[in-house]
Amino acid sequence: MFKELYRRLTLMNALILIAFLLIFSYSIVGFTNSTFDSSAKRSLFEQSEKIKNIVDTYGTFDFTLPNEGIGSGIDIENSYSRIEYILWNENLDLVNLSNLRENLLDVTFIQAKNALENRNSYYSSMTLSGVKYRIYNVYALTKSGSPYIIQVFQSRVIDDLITRQIFVVVMGIGIVSLIVLIFISAHLAKKSLEPVRQTYERQKEFIADASHELRTPLTIIRTSAELLTMKEDEKIKDNLKWIDNISVETENMSKLIENLLTLAQADNKQIPVEMARVDLSKLAYEAGEKFQLIAKEKGLELESIISDNVNIYGDKDKLNQLIVILLDNGIKYTPKSGKITLSLMNTAEKAIISVKDTGIGMTEEDRERIFERFYRVDKARFREEGGAGLGLSIAKWIVDEHKGKISVESQLNEGSNFIVELPKKRKI
Ligand code: ADP
To answer: Are 154 and 44 in contact (CB under 8 A)?
Structure first.
């Protein structure tokens, strides 16, 4: 699926680049052409004005102009850049000509006739022996008022040659850069798709894990219910174990679904985080009190060391959920007669919550992974504790929402210490 997307993205980028290259090359060629055209038209116009002046001044069509456009260059270049001329009188008799060549008069006569009949001057083009020319047909009047036609023309061989060369160079550079750009765009397409692919893979894993986690309690509930139906003649009090199973697993399932929902909504940024001033000291104190009884039931000591007046800007319910997750884990993963210490400290910039236990601890490898969804150090052993490996993912999400940091220090069989640092300033 991602390969196909990657292929399409690269192809689309390539097509856009090719279109861009063609537009760019044609614009450059078009611009060069129009620059040559306007400068050539200007030269033809100036030359025609010169001829008109001579006719006005000397009152004759009989003169010879020096070859215009002749520079110090090579002959072939001179012959191509030379501006030539033809003059016709009012009866369309040829009266002057700079240079005679094959078919010239056949082609120019028609244009001269046109200019005379329509009494207007116009630019045009013509081809002589395979060479293209620009021509300016001028309708003019002598001093005595009789019309005559001046035709000035110049070959466009050099202009066309330069334009073609520019086109070849632009296309050459363009094609080389196109190849490079296609490689770069393929690389970028791959890079930009990578996070999407990762999210997609994670989502797939998430669904697979969630279904797996839901299947276990459902199986237990179904088996217990089936067993109960088989014992329909027995008393309920003799089968409390199965009923208990059903109620514990239902409780587990609803906790799991609630956690899944929280994470799914968090991913979609659907959970409103309501920021306000929170008395963290009070919150921690109350959470510590609530867990006293649970700790005692398990034969654990729970100590709270809480600094007064620690206030931060945050979401009270989420912060409470965070402390509950950490305390709940501390109690879950600490064997009998261990100790859990909840402490809250205060610096100028941040509030620091720490939940320390003398429990089973974990290896360095586990330490790096426990904030991942569904990650549990010992999947089988802790099933009965009801954990699906989502608590710490939720804790991390809450800390992230508060722009804080969560970390863990832990030694296998010695205990763990979860440390949460929350900025006090309103950065959110
Ligand atoms: P769970 O619901 O399984 O507790 P969590 O996300 O809260 O899920 O924790 C993930 C895993 O991290 C746990 O399954 C456990 O293996 C490990 N863990 C969490 N807290 C502690 C702790 N205080 N001591 C040792 N291991 C812990």
So the answer is: yes
Q: Is 209 helix (H, G, I), strand (E, B) or coil?
A: helix
Q: What is the CA radius of gyration of the chain?
A: 46
Q: How far apart are CA 33 and CA 286, in angstroms?
A: 83
| pLDDT-derived band at 62, boundaries 50, 70, 90 | confident
Tell whether the model's pLDDT for residue 195 goes beyond 80. yes
Q: Which of 366, 392, 394, 419 to mutate to test the pocket of ligand 1 (most atoms within 8 A of CB)?
A: 392
Q: Which of 325, 370, 383 to mutate to test the pocket of ligand 1 (most atoms within 8 A of CB)?
A: 370
Q: What global pTM score does this model have?
A: 0.62
Backbone angles phi, psi at 356, to 5 degrees: -115, 140
Distance 297 CA to ligand 1 centre (A): 20
Q: What's residue 383's pLDDT?
A: 56
Q: Chain-centre distance of CA 391, in angstroms?
A: 33
Strand arrangement of the beta sheet that strand 339-346 belongs to: 301-306, 339-346, 350-357, 415-423, 405-411
For residue 417, report the phi and psi dihedrals to the nearest 5 degrees. Answer: -135, 110
Closest C-alpha to 309, from 339, 277, 267, 268? 277
**pLDDT tens digits along 42-51:** 999 999 999 9
Burial level of 378, CB count in 10 A (0-12/13-18/19+)? exposed
Residue bearing the bigger pLDDT, 202 or 365: 365
Q: Which residues contact 92 (CB under 8 A, 6 or more apart)?
A: 109, 112, 113, 116, 149
In 142-254 the beta strands, taken as DSSP E runs, fall at 147-155
Q: Write down the pLDDT at residue 72.
A: 40
The strand pair at 147-155 and 415-423 is best described as unpaired
Counting from 1 in the atom list of ligand 1, the atom nearest the Cα of 377 is: 16
Contact between 101 and 128 under an 8 Å Cβ cutoff? The reply is yes
Residues with a CB atom less than 6 Å from ligand 1:
329-330, 333, 357, 359-362, 370, 375-377, 382, 387-393, 416
Q: How far apart are CA 30 and CA 50, in angstroms?
A: 30
- State both tokens at 327: 């305390």
Shortest CA distance to 263 belongs to which of 393, 406, 405? 393
Residue 72 per-residue DSSP state: S
